[in-house]
Amino acid sequence: xxxxxxxxxxxxxxxxxxxxxxxxxxxxxxxxxxxxxxxxxxxxxxxxxxxxxxxxxxxxxxxxxxxxxxxxxxxxxxxxxxxxxxxxxxxxxxxxxxxxxxxxxxxxxxxxxxxxxxxxxxxxxxxxxxxxxxxxxxxxxxxxxxxxxxxxxxxxxxxxxxxxxxxxxxxxxxxxxxxxxxxxxxxxxxxxxxxxxxxxxxxxxxxxxxxxxxxxxxxxxxxxxxxxxxxxxxxxxxxxxxxxxxxxxxxxxxxxxxxxxxxxxxxxxxxxxxxxxxxxxxxxxxxxxxxxxxxxxxxxxxxxxxxxxxxxxxxxxxxxxxxxxxxxxxxxxxxxxxxxxxxxxxxxxxxxxxxxxxxxxxxxxxxxxxxxxxxxxxxxxx
Length: 382
Description:
The protein is 66% helix and 3% strand. It is mainly alpha-helical. It is built from 14 helices and three strands. The chain has a three-stranded mixed β-sheet. It has one domain (7-381). The protein has helices at 7-31, 48-57, 60-79, 82-109, 121-135, 140-153, 166-175, 196-213, 219-243, 257-264, 274-294, 301-308, 310-332, 345-372, and strands spanning 117-119, 180-183, 187-191. Keywords: Membrane, Transmembrane, Transmembrane helix. The chain crosses the membrane at residues 12-31, 51-75, 87-108, 120-144, 195-213, 225-246, 273-291, 303-328, 348-367. Residues 7-218 form the Heparan-alpha-glucosaminide N-acetyltransferase catalytic domain.
């Protein structure tokens, strides 16, 4: 089967774009803790600029996960081996879980051993890869059924609880409900990213890869199919959201038009609702089509560089943010109650832009090092 070489640049560029958007959200979680937002957000108590910055950041995890599934198929097609792909997914998935538990948790908490171990997005991606490793031998029709059944059906499980069965409840916290898992007196886990919906999304990415890249189709044909998937997802989102019956919490008419729009777009991320997935995966696929059209432009190169070293950037930027926060506390003290923080959302964007510029040379050097040292296996995971 023929896999066009250009596809990697577009995928890296899209991954780079959402990485930079993700950094804005992580800057918010570092320097705007005095204005924390619940999930979903409270319309009446959330500034519009903060609301839409947070909504934009919702794009990141779904795009990461769907591209992970898509890239898994491309790896399989390149090597023409399900066994090699299964082993790659298993090793990389376990490596990501290790990073989440040890390296990334320390970046967030600054504690070792930590009081709480947060099971967040890298954990969810890693464990989803492990699950996908066990699924890729199934037929494509069955994989489509598994993926779509999870994505469209998991909200039916929202009211399920196993509170009287502690062991089962802990498993349920990992699969579908945010919660606290306590092992003894000193070990506590917070399941920030329940796994089940992400299994549906990563499998969807793999199925899209098979459908779009499994033959020598020209770029125009591939883009037409991808655009069809993306637009269909967006249209279905608007239909279901307008019906206001299933797929997320209900929206309502608010005192102003802007607040009504905010209510309409106020989607649930933890775990990702059906409507959250439809909107963000659909938008991600549309962006992938547009990026493929401009992937050879010079101005897109920085996005490709950032996207070619996603885990390296993820770890570095978290430690840089932690260091900057500790420095700010040392220099300025606590400016908002228990926290140091900035006063405006615009400051979050300014900090993010400055950090992107400052970190780019390091990412460029590491990307070049990674490209020149492909024999170092661990670099494939960064």
